[in-house]
Amino acid sequence: MQSKFFTAEKIFDNVTRIGGLAGELCYLVEGSEKALLIDGLTGVGSLKAFVRELTDLPVTLVLTHGHVDHIGAAFEYGECWLHPDDIALLYEHGDAEARLGFASGGGRKIDPADVVPPRAIRTLPVQDGHVFDLGGVQLEVIHVPGHTYGSIVLLDRARRIVYSGDACNANTLLFLPGSTTIQEYKEALLHFKTFQPAFDGMFGGHGPGPVPNTLVDEALQLCDEIMAGTDDQEPGGFIGRECLYARKKNEFFQRADGGIANIAYSKDRIWKAQ
Questions:
Q1: CB neighbour list of residue 88: distance below 8 Å, 6 or more residues apart
Q2: What is the DSSP letter of 13?
Q3: Can you state the angle between helices 215-228 and 182-193, rounded to 10 degrees?
Q4: Do the beta carbons of residue 222 and residue 233 sit within 8 Å?
Q5: What span, in angstroms and rounded, lies between the C-alpha atoms of 102 and 86?
Q6: What pLDDT score does 119 carry?
Q7: Which range, of 40-54, 120-134, 176-190, 229-243, averages the lowest pLDDT?
Q8: DSSP state, residue 105
Q9: 7-205+212-269 in CATH: which number?
Q10: Contacts of 81 (CB under 8 A, 6+ apart)
Q11: Of 37, 57, 86, 128, which one has the fewest beta carbons inside 10 Å?
Q12: Where do the structural domains in the chain lie, given as residue ranges?
């Protein structure tokens, strides 16, 4: 299924992956009683209307974190589940011009009238251990601060799958305002790793998926190397901010050594404040 703004493909019989204009991804998971929309894309075009074409079930929206390319539908639904540490980020990134700018990357021409305008949102606090019961389908929240302090992932034990947002992927950005230090991220990954026996792969907020659960181990290794100063320290940048990459990569963000995980960071945000 496809529209002017979105694409949709079934990845399981009850799960639809939805893509936005800039390649950002969200997931519609259906149970017997309700559906859970994991992330809300950028808010260009009506994702709420698009989702209504995909399911007749009542839809609950949960955000993996508060960045511009994940929050857009919150301004349509007027309500979302979100970790409290990212509520301020939600409103900071909710500016219509910022969301338009993200979606317009790569020279895409977008009518500003197609951007969902910001408004007050009822935010429901989601914490580590919370379970969304959709009727025969349960999704468990795991708090993985790093990319943002409020980043979460959602574990489907029956499917042995995690929906990971931007928490742990092939291009994890830890140098942005609102990101944790490398030391804090390692602590979060060690918590995430305790769930590793329960899942085989991860579907993220960008790029192909699923990626294997060994991505967690690769990310932990990179944290150790960054803290030891033995990583590649390859210069890079994003949205006008300079950073270092733990592993050398090509223009498509693929690691030169054949690994998958990579971390972008800044040297002033390696260690927790004493």
A1: 66
A2: T
A3: 150
A4: no
A5: 19
A6: 94
A7: 229-243
A8: G
A9: 3.60.15.10
A10: 60, 61, 62, 63, 123, 124, 125, 126, 130, 132
A11: 128
A12: 7-205+212-269
